[in-house]
Design goal:
alpha/beta; Rossmann fold; Dimethylsulfoxide Reductase, domain 2; 3 domains; 7-stranded mixed beta sheet; 6-stranded mixed beta sheet; 28 strands; binds iron/sulfur cluster
Length: about 675
Amino acid sequence: PRYGETEKVRTTCSYCGVGCQMHLHIKDNRVQRITGADTAPNNGSLCVKGRFGYDFIHSEERLTHPLIREKDGFRKVSWDEALKKIADHFTKIKLQDGPDKMGVLVSARMTNEDNYIAQKFARTVLKTNNIDHCARLCHASTVAGLAASFGSGAMTNPIADIENARVILVTGSNTTETHPVLSGFIKRAVKFNKARLIVIDPRQITLTRFAEKWLRPEPGTNVAWINGLMHVILKENLHDPDFIRQRTIDFDKLKKSLEPYTPEYVASLTGIKEKALIETARIYAAGAPSSIIYCMGITQHSSGTDNVKALANLAMLCGYMGIEGGGVNPLRGQNNVQGACDMGGLPNVYPGYKPVTDPVVRADMEKAWQVADLSPIPGMTVTEMIPAAAEKKIKSLYIIGENPMVSDPDIGHVKKCLKNLDLLVVQDIFMTETGKLAHVVLPATCFAEKNGTFTNTERRIQRIRKAVSPPGNALGDWQIICRLAGQMGMGMSYKNSREIMDEIASVTPSYAGVTYERLEEKGIHWPCPQKDHPGTPILHQETFTNGKGVFHAIEFRVPAEETCPEYPLILTTGRLLYQYHTGTMTMKTAGLNEIAPESHIEISSEDAQNAGLRDGEIAELSSRRGMVTARISISPKAVNGTVFMPFHYARAAANVLTNTALDPVAKIPELKVCAVKLRNI
Ligand code: SF4
């Protein structure tokens, strides 16, 4: 130990979905510094957030006591008083209005154990399937699209496998900013293994510097260019007929649907030059293997599920599934977004994606949980629950570790909806923008103060370990929920998180072989169906989860909102390296805030000139839903006609402007495209 440190605790980073392994170095019950652990997936590396973004753990601003809102502000109360108020209210609503007037929002920042207990609480105590989480805003379309194509909605190949790819197609992912350590695998593959990199993104991103091809489609035209690539591959006989014949169905439907997508037609829809499209199709098809890596530039659209299915079509067309260096690889944004989905933090499925509508499944779950009358009705999504509050179709919300007042589209409307609730309970580690609207606020522990597991983007289940004591009276999420269940007369009692994982394994087939002992050294990739099963780094090797892979004929649809004379620019939103999600943790870290203290409007020099704006000036950006002011940042990253804003900041919140139009299948909002106008003030 150095610097008088007394302990070194191995755990998992609490930020992005890469799930880097790290050591917390402890002195006097405080985290002194963080270093990377020399094991998978990061092999010692950490990015700036993981390495330095830990001030928040010991921040003076942490919530330390339960709070109840009164006329003149919040009053500190005991746990008993806070939980009794919530329990009485939930019990009354359940009896008077019915369980489906309540909802629970869980979080990709909670552990698997926390998420499991929260969905069990919603289903067995509240008796509703109204439970959802922020995957609805980032990868709901991945879950829906890949499940429809392959039978399983997750990253198909492990992170380290990127180095086995001969061609890497990155689209809708600013990987160096959002998944920094993973981007190192891409750069190493290009530099040392001579992999060929294709970047398809309207914005110039760091990876474009390493790319052999950079295509710059109009935002919202993904299906068109993906269909265009497949059109060329088929026309030039570059597809894999053996794979298609042996392992897939509905190829003829796909083939027919691709006929119109000639390079000329695709150029007219996307702005991608014909020659560039043809050359890119040839590179991808010549990969053997080629890997597709994507993120929210694909998913956050009203056509999000179609975009994902189209990428699945492309990979199957060339036979790049179930092999090293291939696959379709969605990068999950937050540390446990994969796990929150796996644990059934979704309105239509129990843990392990078992449908709530299936009577056999329901009977099994009733037996396992020793309850009767689980609801057969799929619940509402977060994008349905919050608007439903405006009409009193939802009367109470229990929000754990989420901050929709910054993260959800059309924040002005979100605020009206949340203020219309009879009871809003917010459980978090800080007083968030959403917490300020709550009737009851509950103080929770952060990742350094609890035991449990996170499942990273590559389906690797990994341990987190308690390193320091929580501040004040803060408690772990699952402990709070179990105490609340007790107040409502329902016994939910566990000795520790290990006991919860044992129950998870007993009801979740893909986690059946998982124990804390087995996770001690390295994580395990699910599916891990037995205690002696080694886990499954690559999915769909012999057969797809569904048996055969399914091709889908997908037609291009324009985004829900297009530019017009009044709103002539497109706004697209995204993330920055130095901030994380709604800033709850990173904005409590001095160094990160010094580098990225405020929002900005990234714009091309031509668009700025047309609007009479200079770099650094404050401008007003408005959409049909609202207006924000932020500093202009003229950048070569921006393409003419499109401006970019990071969504992290509550001040100048990009989501004041964004559109609530939903993908009809996944109910994900179109956060990546809306029409805006810019004004010099
Ligand atoms: Fe944490 Fe992601 Fe950075 Fe790794 S890449 S240190 S998981 S934020």
